[in-house]
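$ ./design --mode recover --in tokens.txt
reading tokens...
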């Protein structure tokens, strides 16, 4: 700020000096003209009053030239400063993102550039805060819906038990089992919601380790094999001999693979094959989980990783799930500087996860 003040003061001083010399030059020219008139017409002898009048006129003209020159020099700067002041007031009234036209290449233009950067940064921050607020509102709405459904079911069956609205012990056991299943569903939702909130708030610390992804995927496939066999699905791994080492938090990254396999287990067309493959790609390793599923349109495909999104618009409980599994997987992958996406073609759905390789 002191530098800018000094610069403006210097420019003002130079404007005064320039105006002075312009007026001085004009005065000298006029006096030379008067001297020429005096030599030609001998004015001095004819009338002293005329010389006095001419001298006063020269003085007034010199002052006028000085003022006019000074005004012409600084008027442009004054208008620009007024323009800057108006734009700053406009930005100050929360019109963030508005900018100031930059003229010239001096300290004032640098100031305008900094104001523009500040305006853009403020806009970015306020847009981010607004997005967070909207996200919170949507989250509350989604959570309310997903909590209400199992709670209503639990309350209904407990009311039946309270009123002894059952005829046999088998019917009693059925009501209890259903209520217990809804309770487990509610517990899963709360745990997933808690984890998703921590991941979104970046409040979680990852315990990174350099591990072989081949071994991790192979072990999980072996563990999940019986579950897929039970659902008439053949889990087929394609793990290359080349070892792919990555830097991951094993507990969190296993969650990603389990969520994707769990998604395939629920939504695959049965009977069918679920293929799990690893291969190198762009200085990293890509894991692909491919299975047959119902055809999915491009719009639904783009929202698969949104929280509480389910491909079934009815949010059917037959397939279960909290609608947070893929959102959690996406958050974990991004924390590992990776990327995750889905591809669909006809009745084939593929989930892909890319991670950078760890050289050491």
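writing sequence...
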């Amino acid at each position: 700020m002191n530098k800018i003040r000094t610069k403006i003061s210097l420019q003002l001083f130079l404007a005064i000096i320039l105006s002075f010399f312009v007026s001085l030059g004009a005065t000298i020219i006029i006096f030379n003209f008067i001297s020429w008139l005096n030599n030609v017409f001998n004015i001095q002898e004819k009338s002293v009053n005329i010389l006095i009048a001419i001298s006063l006129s020269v003085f007034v003209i010199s002052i006028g030239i000085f003022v006019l020159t000074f005004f012409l020099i600084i008027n442009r700067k004054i208008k620009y400063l007024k323009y800057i002041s108006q734009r700053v007031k406009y930005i100050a009234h929360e019109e963030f993102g508005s900018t100031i036209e930059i003229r010239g290449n001096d300290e004032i233009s640098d100031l305008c550039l900094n104001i523009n950067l500040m305006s853009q940064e403020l806009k970015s921050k306020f847009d981010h805060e607004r997005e967070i607020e909207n996200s919170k509102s949507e989250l509350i709405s989604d959570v309310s819906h997903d909590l209400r459904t199992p709670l209503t079911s639990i309350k209904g069956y407990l009311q039946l038990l309270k009123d002894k609205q059952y005829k046999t012990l088998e019917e009693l056991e059925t009501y209890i089992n259903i209520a217990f299943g809804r309770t487990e569903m509610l517990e899963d939702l709360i745990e997933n919601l808690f984890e998703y909130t921590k991941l979104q708030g970046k409040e979680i610390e990852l315990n990174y380790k350099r591990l072989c992804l081949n071994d991790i995927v192979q072990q999980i496939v072996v563990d999940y094999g019986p579950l897929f066999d039970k659902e008439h699905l053949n889990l087929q791994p394609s793990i290359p001999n080349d070892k792919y080492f990555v830097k991951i938090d094993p507990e969190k990254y296993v969650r990603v693979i389990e969520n994707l396999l769990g998604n395939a287990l629920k939504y695959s067309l049965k009977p069918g094959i679920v293929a799990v493959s690893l291969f190198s790609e762009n200085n990293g390793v890509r894991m692909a989980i491919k299975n047959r599923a119902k055809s999915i349109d491009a719009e639904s495909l783009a929202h698969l990783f949104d929280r509480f999104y389910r491909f079934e618009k009815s949010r059917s409980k037959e397939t279960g799930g909290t609608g947070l599994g893929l959102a959690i997987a996406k958050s974990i992958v991004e924390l590992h500087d990776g990327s995750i996406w889905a591809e669909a073609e006809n009745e084939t759905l593929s989930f892909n996860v890319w991670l950078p390789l760890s050289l050491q």
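exit 0
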